[in-house]
Design brief:
Elements (H helix, E strand, L loop, with lengths): L3 H5 L3 H17 L8 H14 L6 H8 L18
Helix pairs in contact: 2-3
Length: 82
C-alpha cells in the first residue's frame, strides 16, 4: 500500500477511490472505530460508484448494519488459542 509508483499510475477517480479505501481501512477495520466511520464508508462507496463499480451484496449489508459492528473490530483476542 505504500508503493509510490502505484499511486502515480492512477487516474483522478481511481486515486479518490484508493484514498477513500485506505481511510476506511484506518477508520473502520482497525482496533477501534473512528467517530466518522459512517462518513468514511459512504465516501468510499461514492468514490467507487463514480468509477462505474457496482455495490456488491456484501458491501450493501456492511453499509446497512454499520452500527452493529463492535468498537474493537480489528483487535486480537489473547484467549483465541486456548
Amino acid at each position: 500500500m505504500k508503493d509510490p509508483v502505484f499511486k502515480s499510475k492512477l487516474t483522478k477517480k481511481e486515486t479518490a477511490a484508493w484514498t477513500s479505501s485506505k481511510e476506511l481501512e484506518k477508520n473502520f477495520l482497525g482496533n477501534h472505530k473512528a467517530e466518522n466511520y459512517g462518513k468514511s464508508s459512504i465516501t468510499c462507496l461514492k468514490a467507487y460508484k463514480t468509477m462505474g463499480c457496482n455495490m456488491s451484496l456484501k458491501i450493501y449489508f456492511l453499509r446497512s448494519h454499520l452500527e452493529f459492528y463492535p468498537e474493537n473490530l480489528g483487535s486480537v483476542n489473547d484467549e483465541h488459542g486456548e
